[in-house]
Write a structure and sequence with these properties.
Elements (H helix, E strand, L loop, with lengths): L2 H12 L12 E3 L2 E6 L5 E3 H14 L4 E3 L5 E6 L4 H10 L15 E2 L14 H13 L12 E3 L12 E8 L7 E8 L12 E4 L3 H16 L8 H8 L1 H12 L6 H5 L12 E4 L5 E6 L5 E2 L1 H14 L3 E4 L5 E7 H13 L14 E2 L13 H11 L9 E4 L13 E7 L2 E6 L10 E8 H11 L9
Helix pairs in contact: 2-3, 2-9, 5-7, 11-12
Bound molecules: iron/sulfur cluster (SF4).
Length: 460
């Protein structure tokens, strides 16, 4: 990739109105530029991982974040190193298919897609959608936040994060499996959840997705400020969309059965520890780096482990953790021990296995507190408490680290002080019900510790 090509790509992309970081567009933060690297289904080869580690060291401040869409962010990029960073990442094969395709690389599948017994392998469909998004001139105009979930019904899957469009399989045991679909939300798992809008034969899934994109883009011509499907549905209602889809696909999509369908809940913390693959001779080994962050040494070390024990690839997950696929059963425990020796957490019972945090005042001008150091302090105070649910530390109410409410959210109110919300008890806030306001980390630890445990109110 020549310097000239890189420059052309940047100028094209920077003309787009967006504050979202991308490969060519470094969002400015307190600690420097943020370069977001979109990975295809979270995958990174060991060679690419070494390249990212080296680039983060040379061009940034060494912090590499795993995002809740299973991508990576290199932080602290110095302005004079931006071109060098982009060139290095493109040369590593981590760029989009063309110069306007970077922003729309937002297709999520389960990190276990294709490896889960009896489930639908959605990877070929997801790859086609990813290609079409990047190469169709109209689809390239979608918002960088516009996202699609293609669920294969895997037992381990992130189905809590809302997406503009989601598909999830039904009737998997039948000879004619279908995809349920919905917009501006998540596959329903609870009785009172927003139901699916309809279902299509699996062979019509691609037509359904492109149909929804076409209908939205056509509607957007008269509503240029709209960027997400929820804006269209909010104005037109969902029936408008389904009516048009039925006309395009020439088949009924609604049914009483689909209105009552619920997805099986995903297995909690299945992305951590050992998880056998379909043939039982290999397994995934999953681990959480502290607060979902890596440094160049850690990424290099993970690349070495993937090359030595796995299939030479790392897979990032939307839980901001990392998986090593295809580790032989014989090597699994050694790999797990090696990950722990590197400081990653593999035991889901430990608080830091599931704690996430935004950059807080270490990197964000909007932060009211140092969420990362406060999070580490909270975890250490809670280390002997039993069964603490996942905790999200947020430097303000924007909730950058998590698009959905976690069981416990601490939202900063001032340096070292937080409001605590419990999602399990639902409440007026997007984070759930307020448990306590403006408390210190010591007070938060006491409250959370008192209420934790399998029978405690935090599990209500
Ligand atoms: S949640 Fe608030 S403080 Fe944290 S990164 Fe986002 S804007 Fe900054």
């Amino acid at each position: 990739m020549s310097h000239l090509t890189t420059t052309i790509q940047r100028s094209t992309v920077e003309a787009r109105r967006s504050a979202c970081p991308g490969l060519f567009r470094m969002a400015k933060a307190l600690d420097g530029g943020i370069c977001r690297l979109k990975l295809t289904f979270g995958d990174l080869s060991a060679v690419q991982a070494r390249c990212v580690a080296d680039a983060a060291q040379r061009c940034g401040n060494g912090t590499i974040e795993i995002t809740n869409r299973a991508n990576l962010q290199i932080r602290g990029v110095r302005p004079e190193m931006e071109e060098s960073l982009i060139t290095a990442l493109l040369e590593a094969g981590l760029g989009p298919l063309n110069d306007r395709g970077d922003d729309v690389r937002n297709v999520m599948i389960s990190p276990f897609a294709g490896f889960d017994r009896t489930r639908l392998d959605v990877r070929p469909l997801a790859l086609r959608v990813l290609t079409i998004l990047q190469t169709n001139l109209l689809y390239q105009t979608l918002s960088p936040k516009f996202s699609i979930l293609i669920d294969g019904g895997e037992s381990v899957a992130m189905v809590d994060h809302p997406h503009d469009l989601w598909l999830s399989p039904i009737d998997l045991e039948s000879s004619a499996p279908r995809f349920a679909f919905g917009v501006a939300g998540v596959p329903p798992t609870q009785a009172d959840a927003q139901p699916a809008l309809g279902s299509v034969a699996t062979g019509q899934a691609l037509g359904l997705i492109t149909g929804i994109l076409d209908i939205f883009i056509e509607w957007r011509r008269a509503h240029p400020q709209a960027s997400r499907l929820r804006h269209m549905i909010g104005e037109t209602g969902a029936d408008y969309l389904v009516d048009q889809l039925e006309l395009r696909l020439g088949a009924p999509l609604r049914s009483e059965k689909i209105a009552n369908w619920r997805r099986a809940p995903a297995r909690e913390n299945g992305h951590l520890g050992l998880w056998p693959e379909v043939d039982n001779s290999n397994c995934f080994v999953g681990a959480m780096p502290l607060l979902g962050r890596l440094d160049p040494y850690l990424l290099q070390s993970l690349a070495e482990l993937a090359a030595k024990y796995g299939n030479g690839k790392l897979r990032m997950t939307p839980w901001q953790s990392v998986l090593l696929p295809q580790v032989s059963i014989d090597d699994a425990k050694t790999t797990l021990a090696a990950l722990e020796a590197l400081g990653l957490v593999t035991n889901p019972k430990k608080v830091l296995a599931t704690m996430i945090s935004c950059s807080g005042s270490a990197g964000c001008g909007s932060a009211l507190a140092a969420t990362q150091s406060d999070g580490l302090k909270l975890a250490s105070l809670l280390q002997s408490s039993p069964a603490v649910p996942p905790i999200h530390m947020s430097g303000c109410s924007k909730s950058c680290a998590s698009p959905s409410a976690k069981p416990i959210t601490l939202v900063a109110t001032a340096a070292g002080r937080y409001d605590i919300f419990l999602c399990a008890t639902n409440g007026p806030s997007r984070f759930g019900k307020l448990l306590a306001a403006n408390v210190t980390i010591d007070e938060a630890a006491e409250l959370i510790g008192e209420n934790s445990g399998s029978g405690g109110p935090l599990y209500a």
